[in-house]
Write a structure and sequence with these properties.
Residues 18-168 form the MOSC domain. InterPro entries: MoCF_Sase_C, MOSC_domain, Pyrv_Knase-like_insert_dom_sf. This is MOSC domain-containing protein YiiM. It comes from Kaistia dalseonensis. The protein is an alpha+beta fold. It has 4 helices and 13 strands. Helices cover 14% and strands 31% of the residues. It has one domain: Beta Barrel (M1 Pyruvate Kinase, Domain 3). The protein has helices spanning 45-50, 65-73, 121-126, 130-133, and strands at 4-9, 20-21, 24-27, 31-32, 60-64, 87-90, 102-105, 109-116, 135-137, 143-145, 149-155, 157-159, 165-168. The strands form 3 sheets. It has an 8-stranded mixed β-sheet with strand order 2-1-6-5-11-8-7-13. A 3-stranded antiparallel β-sheet has the order 4-3-12, with no helix packed on it. Strands 9-10 form a two-stranded antiparallel ribbon. The longest helix has 9 residues, at 65-73.
Length: 180
């Protein structure tokens, strides 16, 4: 199966879930046009409270459909966009990508993966137990965050469901994704 976009979402408010859209427009250096998290500096409220001048490394949130399927199988009522992502993908191991991976979304847009989404209490506010469900442990007992990855926009463009995703790995040695 080739990597592709299955859904795109945005919200102009700091609501948890984001409604599906027929397309989203990515703006270079800013994020998703019209989304509450768009901007050169941080827009997530907890980060703004600490330092509003921090660069926004969380302009675009991506979640793999496979985790949504896993969550539904565990009894959670989740669909594309409900856990706050802008782009829902299929056929790509988002969590296994190294930092700096460039993803080509559709004909024009290019984003760069900056790190992992850090699951927060908003997940449990949405559905009890959801935070724990998107956290795990690897074979070494290390915490594994499964709530998606964050990215910045390098080249703008429209992104639609059904668009192919091209993967451009950074030069080696690869750097493991950390929370951002």
């Amino acid at each position: 199966m080739s990597a592709r976009v299955i859904s795109v979402s945005s919200s102009d408010t700091h609501s948890f879930s984001k409604p599906a859209r027929p397309f989203i427009r990515l703006l270079k250096g800013l994020g998703v046009e019209g989304d509450a998290h768009m901007g050169e500096t941080v827009k997530h409220r907890s980060r703004v409270a600490v330092d509003p001048t921090q660069p926004n490394l969380r302009q675009v949130h991506l979640v793999h459909a496979e985790i949504l399927q896993e969550l539904r199988a565990a009894g959670f009522d989740v669909a594309e966009g409900t856990i706050g992502e802008n782009v829902t993908t299929i056929g790509i191991d988002l969590l296994g990508l190294p930092r700096g991976t460039r993803l080509h979304l559709g004909p024009d847009a290019v984003i760069e993966v900056t790190g992992l989404r850090n699951p927060c209490i908003q997940l449990d506010n949405f559905q009890a137990g959801l935070t724990r469900a998107v956290l795990g442990r690897d074979e070494n007992g290390e915490l594994v965050r499964k709530a998606g990855v964050m990215a910045i926009v390098l080249e703008g463009g429209e992104v639609r469901p059904g668009d192919d995703i091209g993967i451009e790995l950074p030069p080696e040695p690869y750097q493991k994704l950390e929370r951002v």
